[in-house]
Amino acid sequence: MKRNIRTDLALENKEHLSESGQELSGVDVTTEEDEELGITVTWVKITDETGAKSMGKPVGNYITIESAAMKENDTQAHEEIVKIMARKLGKLHNLDPNAVILIVGLGNWQVTPDALGPKVCDKILVTRHLSGDMPIDLEGRVRAVSALAPGVMGLTGIETAEIVKGVTEKIQPDMIIAIDALAARRTSRINATIQISDAGINPGSGLGNKRASISHASMGVPVIAVGVPTAYIMQAWDC
């Protein structure tokens, strides 16, 4: 029998392969820790197709920020995590200040564990429609941002990637930031982990669903995927 691990976290794929005693080629891992605030940042870089095949994920960068403080009302830790996210996003892609961003909140707003993306869209300050009408004190400080919560195929009958592609072709953003709920194999990472990746995203992949990808290749613009594990996937065995 072979153990089949389903997880959206590249870090957990790396951990599983290491636990199995497998040597990885084409995968680089670096770790930073802030012991005072209890924050760990792990950067997994899949550099070639050999690493991609071993990891079961596309070539690209996968940054994992972990902290139990995410679950707590710890303002200092939350502010530090936000700063870390901003710095890591900047390292993945250095955008022009005038770049237009499309935020895509993936998931089903009717199902609590899958509602992260739509809930994030509810909190986004959308500004693309204010182009030319921005207050003087905000001019040059706020970029053009759009937000879209496309739902899931079970609600719309339309492939999510098709909706995002259609909107992308129409408004021509410089980048897509896709927000999604993820699946993890460790309960300690539920609501305590953020993964950022420039390799795009396959909605529902952690649960075994086969949905079209939202990536640079499919959308024609850079895609940054940001996710938080909200579901625990038990280990399965293939016989």
Radius of gyration: 18 Å
Mean pLDDT, to the nearest integer, reads 88
Output the strand order for the largest sheet.
Answer: 2-3-4-8-9-7-5-6
Q: SSE string, helix = H, strand = E?
A: EHEEHEHEHEHHEEHEE
Q: Work out the count of structural domains.
A: 1
Unreliable parts:
none
What is the CATH T-level topology? Rossmann fold
> What's the total count of β strands?
10
Q: What structural class do you assign from the helix and strand content?
A: alpha/beta
Contiguous helical run count: 7
What do these coordinates show?
This protein has 239 residues and is α/β, with parallel strands linked by helices. It has a single domain (2-238), classed as HybD-like (Rossmann fold, 3-Layer(aba) Sandwich). It is built from 7 helices and 10 strands. The chain has helices at residues 10-19, 49-55, 75-92, 116-123, 153-156, 160-171, 216-219, and strands at residues 2-4, 27-34, 39-46, 60-66, 101-106, 145-151, 175-184, 193-197, 223-232, 236-238. It has an 8-stranded mixed sheet with strand order 2-3-4-8-9-7-5-6, with helices on both faces. The protein has a two-stranded antiparallel sheet with strand order 1-10. β5, α4 (116-123) and β6 form a beta-alpha-beta unit. The longest helix is centred in the middle third of the chain and has 18 residues, at 75-92. The radius of gyration is 18 Å and the shape is globular. The N and C termini lie close together (5 Å). 35% of the residues are buried.
